[in-house]
Fold each of these.
Amino acid sequence: MLTAFTAGLLLITVSELGDKTFFIAVILAMHHSRRLVFIGVTAALAAMTILSVLFGQAASLLPKVYIHYAEIVLFLAFGIKLLYDASKMSAACDTEVMEEAEAAVKKADLELPKQKTSLAIIIEAFVLTFMAEWGDRTQIATIALAAGNNPIGVTIGAILGHAICAAIAVIGGKMIAGRISERQLTLIGGCLFLVFGVLAAIEGV
């Protein structure tokens, strides 16, 4: 359980910082109550985590040998892809992610009344975050972790990782956002995926 918790916490924290959902939280917190934005964002990420763990548990019903090799291949493939992505990234990549997040928030604001209630702000943060997170690498990583590790440990670790990133985004996101290099975080994330892929291979020996 401790291994699953640590894996979930490390992978999610590194992968989520500087991600589109991170910038969505930053932008929303600049216009609305930080507390309400944090509640909405964290609730969405927790819901996505639980859903991903359930997918992972469903996959765990397959023969163990298939799950084991699929986990190794998935982690190694993600690691290689992230390292490749990092090698192709420039400083403009961070700006692109920020602009995508801004566009998503502006679109949501146009569809909602100008005078928003507390519930409306929470719902906006929840929906924007949930939609941005769907199909993201952190979701797939959570599914892979839950398929081969303790589901409770993965769930707690991943939710805590998401909550830490959400807190950083809403408290000091604007100041931190300009100093976060997506290239460096992608590089670290790629290395982490490779490490977990190797560890999964060693455990099966």
Amino acid sequence: MSLVLDPAAQDLLFREARTANTFTDEPVTDEQVQAIYDLVKFGPTAFNQSPLRVVLVRSSEGRERLVQHMAEGNRPKTATAPLVAILAADNEFHEELPALLPHFPQAKDMFFAERPARESAAGLNAALQAAYFIIGVRAAGLAAGPMTGYDAAGIQKEFLDDDHTPLMVVNIGKPGEDAWFPRSPRLSYDEVIKTV
């Protein structure tokens, strides 16, 4: 059985897409980011909790502040990407649940009254949303360069607060010269999928 999604779209989103390491200087517009969000916001999360929060780093001053917290090998990529997004988990996402889950507003206090439960749920579900975000960047015809090599405490202090946990930094733009490393191997179907 084949997939319903057009093969060209499959290639754009998965088979041909890779982490970009260089970018052109073509800007990424607010309209493109809005279109990405308007698509990926529909990806599922538990209780529709939607804990992902995004800080867009556009200014030179913001870029300089961010680059100092990146691992050495990631600094040039972050310094030159047209747009950089800090993806974070909102550990106080439960405050939005009455609006996001109107048929079950008591979920806010029933399941997420305690901070450890919120942090666990926010981390998992914001990571799901981060994956949707990367796919959305690809759907917009842009390349994503997601990275976790950074000083998380430094980024949290510089750009977030104690209620937000950084998940990853994503460089975004049109791929530049020599943007791709060779494709790394993947596990086979039989190595991953088991039937019981």
Amino acid sequence: MNGDTAAVQGGRRISAHAVCTAIRDDIISGTYPPGSRLAEELLARRYGVSRVPVREALRTLESEGFVTTRRHAGACVAQPSEKEAADLLDIRALLEPMGAARAAQRRTEGHVKVLRGLVRLGQERARHGRLGELRSLGDWFHETLAQASGSPSLSGLLVQLRRKTAWVYAADPARAQAGAGAPGAAGSMDLSVRAVESWAEHGAIVDAVARGDADRAQALAAAHTERSLSEYRVRNASPVRTPKHSVNTASGRN
């Protein structure tokens, strides 16, 4: 995509990249369910832009596997299969430990400083039960760890794998069909305890990365990834949240 392509919204220019980010976020969140049509005109109206950046965004999302183009139907949200979900988890289990090992060998002091800061924030939020803030912090942590690998190709793959996994989870039809309410007290406690444990694991990975211990960083990341993906398989069978419906073209998460 040409990132310079932009539309004007409220007196400011909105890049095609921002439009792509907004549509991708809405696909991942479930605002656009699998199989739903993505009409350029309706998307342009929704995000307050022209059809040009929307068209470019859809091309990018198709290359990433979030969108498919059907004859006589145009662009539609792709429909992830159980096999694709399993493949994504297996690939993440291989690549995330590799990324941590590379980070231990190639990280900069800047990377370590950011990672330690994110761990402090994550541990604080987890201890106080502010679970709603942890997803964005977790995304930021893992993207920074991937960048610390010093490999743009590996970093890009890791970021895309996390996005795709989040999308496959959100797109699970069984979960959507059952609906979702807030978890009960026991469920909330389990999530809080796991959040504290998860951020402790993040801290241990950062310690190994800061020491330059590639073997330990890889082993800790492998254990952390396995625990996370094991929980994903369990949660994937039962609904836990309702898709959001907010749109923010200025999102900088991606």
